[in-house]
Amino acid sequence: MPRVLVIIHIYYSNQVDLILDSLNNISLPYDLYCSISNKAEYQEIKNKILDFNPDAHIIDVSNVGYDIWPFVHIINSVDLSQYEYIVKLHTKRDMDCTLPGNLGNGFYIGTGPCWRDNLYAFVSTKENFNKCIAALKDPKVGMCARFNIIHNAPNHCGVIDYARMHYPQYILNLDKYSFVAGTMFVAKAAPFKILKDMNIDDTLFEAPKTTHETQFAHIIERTIGEIIYKSGMIITDPFTPKQHIASIMKLYNKAKMIKRIVNYICFPIPIQVIRHKIKDKLFLKKHLSRIIHILDIDKECDKTKNQCDINHQKETNNEKSLD
Questions:
Q1: What is the mean pLDDT of each run of 10 residues along the chain (323 residues)?
Q2: Would you tell me how many other CB atoms lie within 10 Å of the CB of residue 236?
Q3: CATH of segment(s) 4-236
Q4: Vertex 260: Cα angle to 254 and 262 (nearest 5)
Q5: Which end of the chain is more exposed for a tag (fewer CB within 10 A), N or C?
């Protein structure tokens, strides 16, 4: 049976239970490595992890590089050939509700815990995790995560431009690839030898900032995606129902079009000016509520998901009744 390397990083102690509950959904044997950067609550967190898994490897790390340096540190210290898959999880603060919940990849992931919830989706149920493992048996699939956090614009916020200027040896310069925005996933272990061979150490990382300024950790976040594509594989979502993805894509594409109009007219401004600026008044009339509530579009997505889940359950029940 394949062995799994599970790497978790903990800073926020109030999310330890969330991580441990998620680990219960991993259906394969695994070795657990846990890094802790919260010095004030280190012993309390350590005890809780060891109560859950007495064989867990606990690593005390400096609070630099967010969750990325602790992950790289563990990758550097293990024999990757002993593992077929890697699972990466970490605690993540709520997103500031004063900021737009847009990752820059065209998807709106909401505020508060929404980003974290999307990141944990691949291991939120045993069914989701098993679908990921089944997908990873395909030679072309190297990593699994939820579709709306798979980012296809690595240079968002100029991160790759910054890397080429300051850290060119730590990127692979692929023309096209994706990465997981937030870096939680299940993946094949073999590609991470590329990361290990870069000999990255903690001196390259800065202390975390909540302002999301470009740091070395953001570069490696993208490189982690890049090594999958360099290995001839892709990142995909095998667990979200296709009809859900299609519905959300349609909704997000419409939202992107609306947001372009909003940006063009420097919203908010008086409706009379909007009407003057936009030639297609019928379009405005039809979609004005979407423009006004553009920051609440995640609620519409949740409604769509719930309806898709209901329809999927009905289809499953109908199939069972026919058996």
A1: 90 96 97 97 98 98 96 97 97 70 59 85 97 98 94 89 95 95 97 97 90 86 98 96 70 58 45 44 46 42 50 54 46
A2: 19
A3: 3.90.550.10
A4: 100
A5: C
- What stretch of H or E contains 4? strand 4-10
pLDDT reported for residue 254 = 62
Prediction pTM value: 0.78
Report the amino acid identity of residue 265.
Answer: I
E strands present in 66-222: 85-90, 141-144, 150-151, 179-180, 185-188
Number of residues that this document lists for the chain: 323
Q: Which residue ranges make up each domain of the chain?
A: 4-236, 242-322
Six token digits for residue 264: 């063009």
The alpha-helical segments, DSSP class H, found in 112-187 are: 114-120, 126-136, 159-166
Q: Contact 26/53 with Cβ under 8 angstroms?
A: no
Tell me, what amino acid is at 152? N
Angle between helices 159-166 and 216-230 (to 10 degrees): 100
